[in-house]
Design brief:
The chain is an all-alpha fold. Helices cover about 65% and strands about 0% of the residues. It contains 12 helices and 2 strands, in the order H-H-H-H-H-H-H-H-E-E-H-H-H-H. Strands 1-2 form a two-stranded antiparallel ribbon. Strand 1 and strand 2 form a beta hairpin. Helix 4 packs antiparallel against helix 11 and helix 5 packs antiparallel against helix 6. It is elongated, with a radius of gyration of 28 Å. It starts with 10 loop residues before the first helix and ends in an 18-residue tail after the last helix.
Length: about 280
């Protein structure tokens, strides 16, 4: 049956009624129409058939894929989100789910690291029994690096950032670390292991030096915990969108009415000679 002969209730007319333009998808996701075309070319969206004039024909399935991708980006980042959607569209659903699992596992490890860092920093800041013993005499930069298990270059970077202020030997001009300097270096090292930026570490050290307190330290750890909580919620949202997309894909209602190709059949993609 030709397009001209299609009746009002035909699949062709139904597909036309449900067709979406790039600008329609763009508005739904808050991106540009060109970005929608880029997503389609990158395999983030399922294959889109072409109109006789060569224009892509998007529908509700593409909108659902787009929203799933954008939700995954918020929790996993663009790299992982793209890998997940591409795996889905080439039929590798187990591979896509494995990527999602890996993201949750990495977040869990970050939570464990944050908890361990918090406990260690509390002990270091309070110089309690759980804190590693501080050296009793002055140490050179290489000795401090060995004591903490870091490179001497790291200590110099932290000093250049104003986080460490070791004295200089009046004769040799070598750096000379007192016990308090070693403690500060240990605090910086622990926070860097939890992905804190150098400017974020300064208020922690300032508070520790000024009053011996750990108020800024606790605030920094709480802020990091809140960031991880927000990411966990975003991951849940992304998982919900992906679940809906996979469920509808398994039912494949679009293929039944002829509106579009299923998201797992890359061989259904039309020629890309036209936009």
């Amino acid at each position: 049956m030709s397009r001209q002969d299609a009746g009002a209730g035909s699949p062709v007319r139904a597909c036309e009624a449900s067709a979406l333009r790039p600008v329609d998808l763009a508005r739904a996701a808050g991106v540009s129409p060109q970005q929608i075309r880029n997503y389609a070319d990158a395999g983030i969206l399922p294959p889109a058939p072409r109109s006789p004039a060569g224009y892509r024909r998007f529908d509700a399935r593409h909108r659902q894929a787009l929203l799933a991708y954008r939700a995954l980006v918020r929790g996993h980042g663009s790299g992982t989100a793209q890998a997940v959607m591409r795996a889905v569209h080439r039929g590798d659903v187990p591979g896509a789910l494995a990527l999602v699992d890996a993201g949750h596992a990495a977040l869990h490890e970050q939570r464990n690291a944050l908890r361990t860092t918090g406990e260690a920093l509390e002990a270091v800041a309070a110089n309690g029994p759980a804190a590693p013993a501080l050296p009793r005499s002055r140490l050179r930069v290489g000795e401090v690096a060995a004591h903490l298990g870091v490179r001497t270059s790291a200590l110099r970077v932290w000093e250049a950032a104003g986080l460490l202020t070791p004295a200089r030997d009046p004769v040799t001009h070598y750096r000379s670390y007192l016990p308090a300097d070693v403690r500060d270096a240990r605090v910086v090292h622990l926070l860097r292991q939890s992905h804190y930026l150098l400017p974020q570490i300064r208020p922690v050290l300032d508070d520790l030096r000024r009053s011996g307190g750990i108020g800024a330290l606790r605030s920094a750890l709480a802020a990091r915990g809140s960031t991880l909580d927000a990411r966990a919620r975003a991951m849940l949202e992304g998982a919900a969108h992906l679940h809906d997309y996979l469920t509808d894909a398994a039912q494949d209602p679009a293929a039944a009415d002829g509106c579009s190709h299923g998201p797992y059949r890359a061989d259904d993609a039309p020629e890309e000679s036209a936009q």
